[in-house]
Design goal:
This protein has about 170 residues and is α+β, with helices and mostly antiparallel strands. It is built from five helices and six strands. A six-stranded antiparallel β-sheet has the order 3-2-1-6-5-4. A hairpin with a 2-residue loop joins strand 5 and strand 6. The longest helix has 26 residues.
């Protein structure tokens, strides 16, 4: 995944001035939002990027399905810096958009930038929203648990074999 999305996130950061661009996915098993890939984040910072639904800015965006622009993280009590990527005393703007597919939130795309006027932050928000829409199918593929094929409809499997009932197949 990082080999596919990494260059896209890097290009986005280099061309727009956005920093620490991170793509997160919903992990339905652990009920968390987990950073999958990021530009400007170390592997350790990516591993620390885990949020419960409703926790921090990213968790709130995933829970609500609504984008969020924070003009100053220094003034935002919900900003957690869970990754530990920022230097103390550094003020940045933070933008986070949900990744939606068929109306369901499957992840989030977020980035930092230098503090900027609202119109510039709005342009960055629009750009992240477009990229979120383009990456949604890939994130959905990763976020959806895949059911292991049981070959229960195989013509070589006897129909009354133990484990063939609908109840057993749902296990």
């Amino acid at each position: 995944l990082d080999t596919v999305l990494g260059p896209i996130l890097r290009m986005l950061a280099e061309e727009t001035g956005l920093a620490r661009v991170a793509l997160s996915r919903v992990d339905w098993v652990s009920e968390e939002v987990v950073i999958l890939a990021g530009h400007g984040l170390t592997p350790a910072e990516v591993r620390r990027g885990r949020y419960a639904f409703g926790e921090g800015i990213i968790g709130r965006v995933v829970q609500s399905g609504q984008a969020r622009v924070v003009p100053s993280i220094a003034a935002e009590p919900h900003f957690l810096d869970r990754t530990g990527a920022l230097t103390e005393g550094t003020d940045r703007a933070f933008i986070c958009v949900p990744i939606l597919l068929d109306g369901q939130v499957v992840g989030a795309l977020s980035a930092y930038r230098s503090p900027a006027p609202p119109d510039e932050l709005g342009v960055d928000l629009d750009l992240l929203a477009i990229l979120a829409g383009l990456t949604a199918p890939a994130v959905q593929q990763i976020a959806t648990p895949q059911r292991v094929s049981t070959h229960h409809n195989s013509p070589w499997r006897p129909p009354h074999m133990i484990g063939s009932s609908r109840v057993m197949m749902s296990v």
